[in-house]
C-alpha cells in the first residue's frame, strides 16, 4: 500500500516513476494515442499510452505494447485499476497540468460494459444503484462535508467536556408517543420498539449527573410519508445539558455549535462547494434572530399568507414565509421560533409560569424546520400532570417518571436531523440526495 | 446559567461569593453545624451551615436561619440543588481544601428518601436503576473514558481523510448470515431486518470510491447468550480502506488507531483511573505481535491446554492462554492471530493463493477477542463461489454481489466492539458495566 500516490499529490511531485490507483472515468481510444481519465478519492488524472496497433503489413511488433493497447481499448467505465508509469508535468494538460505515461496497468476488478445509470437518471433509479451514483464528484463531496460538519460539532462538545452517550435503539416502551413506531418480536413473547429519538435516555443522563451529553445516532419512524424531508431511518444529532435557566441556554449552545460547524465546512470545502454546487456557504453570525410564534404568524399574515392550520402552529409555507422575512430583514438564514403553546408541543416541555407557553423553540434554516429544542419539565408531579393532559397512559411512562423521583437538575436540549441540515446547506431538494442509503416506506434496499 | 461555578474550578478561585449546583451525596446533620457534600459532574465539595435549632427557652430566632437548618436536615441523598454562598479556602478541609458557607439553598427536585440501590447491589438491580448507578464516580469516569477513546479514534481517521458514513440499520436482507437476526414488519407486507454489522455497506463505500471510511454505530444480534461479552445491541466501531495489499495493512491501521486512542485515555484520565480502578493504563507499543493461528494452537498446547474445539479455532480459554504467552514473552497485551482457515471465516474473506488460508486476523486484548479484520474478496466470480461453498442462497446476496460487478478496488477493514474494548481497558468483568443501557435477552428496560 506504501507506493500508491493520491492524485491530489501529483502536482507537487517531481517528474518520474509513480503509481496511482483508482477507477476509469473515460477512455479516449484514438488511433495513435490512448487517454484514460483515472479517478481516485482525491481527484482525476490523465493517463496516456502511445497506441500500438497490429501492423497492416504483418511486420513483427512488441507483443507487450500490443497487449497494453488492447487492454486499454477494452477498459469499461468504472473498472478499478493500478497504473505504474512516468509522471510528467505539462501545462497543456487541462486536468491538473500533469500526465502519466502508462508503463504497467493492473486491473483490480473489471466493470461490466453497460453502466445501469447515467448522470441524468431519476432519483429512484439512482438509489437502486447508489454505489455507482455515489461515485459522482458532487456526491462524494456531500459525504466529505458531512464528515467535517460532524467532526466540528463533536469537537465543539468535547472541548466543553460533554460526554458522548450511545443510548439503546431497542426499547420496551415508546419513546415519545405510540404513533409511528416500529415494533419487533424480542425473545419469549416480548415486544421491542425501535427508538424514535433518544429523548428519554438523554434526559436520563442528566439525572445520572452527566451534566452535558451528545449523541449522533440512527432514529426510526414508521412514518408512511413520502416528502422530501422524511425518512423511516435518519441520523439524529442530539444534545442535552443540565442547570439551564431556560430553552434560551439551549438555543445559545446550538447556534454556537452550528456557526462553528458551518465555519469548518466553509474553510475546508468552500471552494469545492462553489465549483460543484455553485453555492457560497454562508457562515451564520450569532446570535440567530428569535421570534415568538404568535409574532411570526402576524408577520406571515402581513406578508399576505393566511396559515390554514387552526392549531396556532406554522405550516411549511408559513415557515418559508417567516424565513424569507428574516432573510430580508436581518440577512440571516436561521431563525428560532419560540413560545409554542403546550397543545402543539410534547408533554415534557416545561411551561413558563407567567405565560403558560412552553419554554421551547423550533429552529428554521432556509425555510425548513431542522430542530426542536426545549427546557424539559424535571418536576415529576408536574410532568405526570402534563402527560395525563395529553391522554398518555402513565403505566407506559412510569420508567421515565422514575428518572425524576430521585432528584433531577433543570435541563434541556435539542434534536436535529443531520440530513435536513446537510440538504439545506448544500442547496439540495431532498434528503435522499444527502443520505448514504435512504430508507423510506418503499425503499429498504440496497 | 452563567453564574454557576463547576466544583473543579473552586480551588483556583478566590474566596468570596459563589454559586454551585449538583446533587447531595451525604448530609452530616450535627447539632451545631451541618455539612452537605455536594457533587456535580466535575467533583465534590463540602457545604457548611451553622445550625439554628429552635430555642428551648422559646426566645425569638431568625426565621430564615431556622428554615434553612430544617431544609438541610430534610435533604435526601440525590436531591439536586443550587447553593449560593461564600467560598473559603481552608487546608483542614480534606475535600479539595475549600468549603462553601451556605447562603441560599434552592432545591431543583427533591429525591425520594429511600434510594432503591446501594453501592453493593447486584448487577441486575443496578441495571434496573441504572440512572442512579451511573452517579457513582467510577461509572461516570467510564463514560468520560469512552468519550475520549472515541474522539481520539475519529480524530485519527479525520486527520487521514477518512469519510464518516451512517449506514442503514434497516435492511431488506441479512447482512452476513441468516442467523441471529431481528426482523420486523415494514409497511405493506415487507420484512425488514436489523443490521448485525455494517459489513456490506462499508464495502459499498469502497466500490463507490470513498477510499477510506469509518462508522461508530449500533448493531443488533438476536443472540440468546448471557455471557459477559454479548449483548443484543452493541456499539460497533468499523473502518474499511481501499487499495490494500493484504489484511496486514488493516492491522497496521488498527494498531496505530488503538495506540493513539489508548494514549489519549492515559493522558487525560490516567490519574483518575488509577485512583478509582487501581489500574495503570498501558499504552501499547506498535507493532503488536502477530502469530499465525496454527502456531498459536501449538503454543497453547505446549502450555498444557488441549483445545477441545475440532474446527481448528481457538476457544475462550485458548485465547486467554495465547494472550498470557504473549504477555510473558513480549510484554504485550495485544496480539493479532492470523491465517484462519476459510471454514471458520465469513465467505467474503479473501484467501491467500498459496496457502489457501484467509487473509484475516482476530485481535485479542488481554485474552479476549475484540476484533475480526480481513481483506475482502473483491472479484465477484470468486466471491460467488465462496458464498456457494458456505451454502448461502445467492438470491439474498445478489444486491451485494452487484456492488462488485461494476468495478471494485482491493479493500479490507475491521469491526470492533466498543464495550469489549472498554471493559478490558478498565479491568471490568462484564460489558454490562461499561454499557450506558445494556440490552440482552431479558433486558429491554429502562
From TrEMBL, chains A, B:
Entry's localization field: Cytoplasm
Residues covered by region (Aspartate): 199-202
Pfam families xrefs: tRNA-synt_2, tRNA_anti-codon
Protein residues bound to L-aspartate: 176, 221, 372, 376
PROSITE patterns, sorted: AA_TRNA_LIGASE_II
Origin superkingdom: Bacteria
Binding site for ATP: 369, 417-420
Record-level GO cellular component terms: aminoacyl-tRNA synthetase multienzyme complex; cytosol
EC number assigned by the record: 6.1.1.12
UniProt keyword annotations, A-Z: Aminoacyl-tRNA synthetase, ATP-binding, Cytoplasm, Ligase, Nucleotide-binding, Protein biosynthesis
Cited SUPFAM superfamilies: Class II aaRS and biotin synthetases, Nucleic acid-binding proteins
Example of a GO MF term: aspartate-tRNA ligase activity
Domain Aminoacyl-transfer RNA synthetases class-II family profile: 143-446
Functional description taken from the UniProt entry: Catalyzes the attachment of L-aspartate to tRNA(Asp) in a two-step reaction: L-aspartate is first activated by ATP to form Asp-AMP and then transferred to the acceptor end of tRNA(Asp).
Quaternary state and interactors: Homodimer.
HAMAP family associated with the record: Asp_tRNA_synth_type2
UniProt name for this protein: Aspartate--tRNA ligase
Species classification: Bacteria, Bacillati, Actinomycetota, Actinomycetes, Micrococcales
Gene name of the encoded protein: aspS
